[in-house]
Amino acid sequence: MFTGLIEEVGSVVHRRPRGSGLSLRIAARRVLEDLVEGDSIAVNGVCLTAAAIDGESFRADLLGETVRRTSFGRMRPGTPVNLERPLRVTDRMGGHIVQGHVDGIAEIVRIRPSGEDTVLTVRCPDMLSKYFVEKGSVALDGVSLTIASVAGAALDVALIPETLRRTAFRSKRPGDAVHVEVDVIGKYVEKLLCSSSMRRGKR
User: Fold this and answer.
1) 164, containing H or E segment
2) pLDDT tens by residue, 36-72
3) Structural domain boundaries of the chain?
């Protein structure tokens, strides 16, 4: 489990085919301090396993299903990526519950200044729109963000200068893809309500 608070921005060293999937080598520093082979690590919000580690990078092997559901297949050497190690029991819960299970890929359609902040407008898959609520939480490329406004499947999020400085959003442009993970609490509420409605319908 993660919190959506990015520890550092790494970069893709290389991307190589691996069967139906991919092998990614990612340069990093801070997250390597206590990382061991087999540990989980969130890369742009996707929970991956560190398969091999050296002093400057780690390798993660992606299944074909992971490649199909993410934007990793489009990445090139030098692409910056958000990195976060899993939450420890003693850590503060500064963001929100992020599982590292991507629900879809969104597109940045607009980036505009708003005072000292930056507002991103992203268009998400229509099937995810039911999970978005104003002032609710969403993870974009693994970053825990608050939804400022919602218009169907499009939503606005505001980035403070510190968030831009600490994440790969500083290099994003309109048209770029971002991973979306909706708030898991909304999924559970939906499941409970659907199950309750089905039970009532059978009476």
Assistant:
1) helix 161-166
2) 999 999 999 999 999 999 989 999 999 999 999 999 9
3) 8-84, 104-189
Among 180, 37, 169, CA closest to 98: 180
pLDDT band at 188 (very low <50, low <70, confident <90, very high): confident
Place of tokens 């559970």: 188
Q: Do domains 8-84 and 104-189 have the same CATH topology?
A: yes
Pick the CATH number of 8-84 from 3.90.1150.10, 3.40.50.300, 3.30.420.10, 2.40.30.20: 2.40.30.20
Q: Measuring CA to CA, how many Å separate 113 from each of 120, 145, 160, 161, 163?
A: 9, 17, 10, 11, 14
Q: Spelled out in words, what is the top-level CATH class assigned to the domain 104-189?
A: mainly beta
Q: What's the number of CA atoms in the CB half-sphere (13 Å) around residue 20?
A: 5
pLDDT value of residue 184: 85
Question: pLDDT (tens digit, 9 = 90+) per residue, 109-120?
Answer: 999 999 999 999
Cα end-to-end distance, the chain, whole Å? 39
User: Percent helix, strand, coil in the chain (nearest 5)?
Assistant: 25, 40, 35
- Is beta strand 177-182 parallel, antiparallel or unpaired with respect to 143-151? unpaired
